[in-house]
Amino acid sequence: MRKHYLFILLCVFTLLTNCSGGEDAPVIMENTSTAVKTGKLTGKVMSQNGTKPIGGASVFTFDDQYKIYYTTSDSEGNFSLDAPAGNRTIYIQTGNGTNFRTEISAVVKDNETVSLDANQTKLNQVAKIAYVKGTYDKIEDIIQILGYTATEITNNDLANMTTIAQYDIIFLNCGSRSSTTNPALYTAIDANLAIFVANGGSIYASDWDVAYLVGGTTNTNNCGLPGGFVPDSKLCSKNIGSSGNIGATVNNAGLTSALGFNTLNIHYDLGAWQKIINYDPAYWEVLVKETSSNDALMIRTNHFAATGIPVTPIGNAATTTFVTVCVTLPGNIQISLSVPQAAVPFLVALGATVGPCSGASNSGYIYYTTFHNHASGNIGNAGVILQYVILNL
């Protein structure tokens, strides 16, 4: 009888253990986790007309929970992206995606590689681009070679805020400024360029056109001259450079990867080019420097801010459905990307922040190069660097 009683107790204990309704039993008994099915997408990022490969482009997509899958194109434009299986939107962007980006619909197949057609992976121009014609520089030629469009404007246009507010990017070609002819005009230009950049517009200036940034007349022959809109404490340049070839080193890992090289010779065809005398390293990032002296030859910033600047919609800002966010990748690598507005709450919930990863929250970029595109000869690898500038403003 005792044996039967013990047997009954054992059965009851077993029954209670299995049917107690506790949380542990079903989790232990049933493995509900499933591995994410992924495939691979390959392709080649090309300029809009399909003639030039684009290195350093961001290529990414999201899974159903908005986890990001990300890679970059190499110097030949090639990429390979691991992506979650299923119907996906693939994003291709340069810079932070504000001005150049492409969206592709693709079916990612589990454990298979799908090659995207070259017509799908062309980088589209979103930005409205303007340039001021210069005496010594023709950046518009490189823009056209890539298959993109830019509108010629004048210094009179720069003095009209309504006119320049239509554009996202303005290129200032070396030799386009001469403030001695109409000082009042250039006072208005300086004020307008400050408004333009503070509200998200981007500017590229080359060589003598540093005068638009820090003051001067046709060029800048000393520090702290009247005019410009960048604080004098942030940059000083003097037109004391000598003609000839200069050995240069690329000082930025992303630029090196995009170019496929980190050293080059830069040809300065004319003397009296603008040497960067000093700069604030917390304000400017040096992208290219002279190898022998470490002097900066190419710099950029997105730290511009000033008090009393009116809020002014610039370019496509009023109509865009994309938002710039900062996403942290594995390895604590932060990248700025443009994503659809609908994705922002989900990305923020996963740790992303709205706005760029660095710089002033509303600032556009200012790129400045002491060298430029010139008509007197082949500028070699410097031309590839200028392509990068165009696509990353």
From TrEMBL:
InterPro entries: Carb-bd-like_fold (IPR013784). It comes from the Bacteria. Residues 1-21 form the signal peptide. Keywords: Signal. GO terms for molecular function: carbohydrate binding. This is Carboxypeptidase regulatory-like domain-containing protein. It comes from Chryseobacterium shandongense.
